[in-house]
Amino acid sequence: MNFRSMDEFWAFYMNHHSKPATRRWHFVGTLTSILCFIYSICFNWWFLFFVPLFGYGLAWYSHFFVEGNVPATFGHPFWSLMCDFKMFGLMLTGQMDREIKRLGKRPIQQVF
Fold first, then answer.
1. Do the beta carbons of residue 47 and residue 40 sit within 8 Å?
2. Dihedral angle over CA of 6, 9, 14, 15, nearest 10
């Protein structure tokens, strides 16, 4: 699939993140990778190793074991990274549910 814009890819990306638990795992992975990046700059460059390990590792875990699909990163690494940061920002500011409704998706209720 070829996408001409971030908006086109965003709708595709959100279809791959339909479960709240998947988005939470992504949030934790992105936050942890950002913190490891900051730590590596300030204290120990070896921590750069953990940036992709946590960022991708937790996100991929959520796709394989929670969502049950293949990560969009495999086919579209750049678009996927940009959308991951967009999703992180929306979750951080509490706007993710509104964005899901805007896209016409019903949030899936989960126990955990």
1. yes
2. 170
Give per-residue pLDDT as tens, 85-99. 999 999 999 999 999
Gyration radius of the chain's alpha carbons: 14
The 10s digit of each residue's pLDDT in 18-74 is 899 999 999 999 999 999 999 999 999 999 999 999 999 999 999 999 999 999 999
Asked if 45 and 90 touch (Cβ cutoff 8 Å), the reply is: no
Please provide the size of the chain in residues. Answer: 112
On the question of pLDDT at 107 being above 90, the answer is: no
Q: What is each CA distance from 110 to 36, 47, 107, in whole angstroms? A: 30, 34, 9
Q: Which of 17, 99, 100, 95 is nearest to 62 (CA)?
A: 17
Is the Cβ–Cβ distance between 108 and 20 less than 8 Å? yes
| Exposure string for 11-22, b = 16+ CB within 10 A, e = fewer | ebbbebbebbbb
CA dihedral of residues 95, 78, 33, 92 (deg, nearest 10): -10
